[in-house]
Each structure stands twice: as C-alpha cells, then as structure tokens.
Design goal:
This protein has 207 residues and is an all-alpha fold. Helix content is 65%, strand content 3%. The protein has helices at residues 3-20, 32-39, 43-55, 74-94, 115-131, 136-153, 162-174, 178-194, 196-204, and strands spanning 29-30, 60-61, 67-68. Strands 1-3-2 form a three-stranded antiparallel β-sheet.
Length: 207
C-alpha cells in the first residue's frame, strides 16, 4: 500500500472517530482544506477518506464536490431507530452463546456518566449481541446502522436513565431468555421512537 493510501486510511479512521463523538455539526460543510491542515496532510487523502465515508453513509456529497454530515431530522431518527429495532429482533431469533455477552460495564450505573460514555457502551452492547448470531452479516449491519445512529445516541437525554436502562437490557439479554429479551428490546426502541422528535431537536441544536 502506497504512503498516500496509508494516510487516507488513517485520516478516514480519525474523521470517523470525530463524527461518532459528535465533533462536527450536522448539515454544515466539511472543508477538505481545513481537515487536511488539521491532520497534517494534503487534500487528496482527505478527499479519499470523505468519499469512503460517503459510501458508509456517514457523510453526504454536496453540489460542486463538497461534503457535509447529513441534516438532523425526526424522520431520519425515527427510521434509523425503527430499522435498528427490526434488525435486532431478527438477531434475537437466531443468536446463541448468550453468556459471551459478559456483564454490563459498571460505568452504566454511574448517574453522572457522560453521553459519549453511554453512546459507546450502547454501540458495544449491540455489537456483542450481534456477534452472538451465527450469521456474520448481522454484526456488519448492526455496526453500520449503529454508526449512523451515533449522533442521536449522544443526545438521548430526553429519555432519561439510559445507563440503568442499558444495564438492565444487557442483563436480560445475556440471561438467554428470548421472550424477555424480545420484550425488553421492544421497550428500548419504543421509548426512542416516541421521543424521536426530542432527540432530533437536541442533536440538531449541536451548532
């Protein structure tokens, strides 16, 4: 792999990490030149990295060849949470090795846990759950939609007590009781679907 290609891989990884951490304002342009200066590289690897992120649906192409994060909307939040719920319920039907989930992180019960900590724990839980499916496509799909949900997970404050909720969901899932897990998962997603408007408003106020 050429040095420029290696740089593009590094820049892609670093920009994605910033997107998932909520560093960039949704809807506003991602300036190639500014990012190149920030990462100490030329514009070519940055443009390659952004094009890859377009393919991952974390970044959108704008007219004139520019880039930006997708606009925040209730419709987008609702559809992503709904699709994630459908996907997880499919996984529950076939998953095995429930005990491999392990216990939830103790940080979830910390009432002062930061939103980024909770969002990362949420992504970890659903990735571990999907990894219990014998179909590896489930893990890929959960991780992809989870990345697109990251900005919303950072702003789930209107739901309240997310850490306690996730810890309970984690323990129910690893118990191996499919019916209890199915009900708990439905309740988890239903709370977010009902508050999609509040969550999207909070995420949209990032600017």
């Amino acid at each position: 792999m050429s040095p420029e290609a290696l740089t593009a891989v590094r820049v892609h990884r670093e920009i994605k990490a910033l997107i998932l951490a909520g560093r960039f304002t949704p809807g506003l342009p991602l300036t190639v030149q500014s990012l190149a200066e920030e990462f100490g590289t030329s514009t070519s690897p940055v443009r390659d990295a952004l094009n890859r992120l377009v393919g991952e649906r974390l970044v959108e192409m704008q007219g004139g060849g520019g880039f930006a994060l997708a606009e925040i909307s209730k419709r987008r939040a609702y559809h992503l949470y709904s699709f994630h719920g459908d996907l997880v319920r499919t996984i529950i039907k076939v998953m095995v090795r429930f005990d491999e989930l392990g216990p939830p992180p103790a940080s979830l019960l910390n009432k002062t846990a930061q939103s980024l900590t909770l969002a990362r724990a949420t992504a970890e839980f659903f990735a571990l759950t999907a990894a219990c499916s014998p179909n590896p496509e489930h893990l890929d799909a959960v991780m992809q939609v989870g990345e697109r949900l990251a900005i919303f997970r950072l702003h789930e404050g209107p739901i309240g007590r997310q850490g306690e909720e996730l810890a309970t969901l984690w323990n129910v899932t690893r118990s191996g009781n499919r019916n209890a897990t199915r009900v708990a998962m439905w309740q988890y997603h239903r709370r977010r679907l009902l508050r999609a408007d509040e969550i999207s408003l909070a995420a949209g106020s990032l600017a």
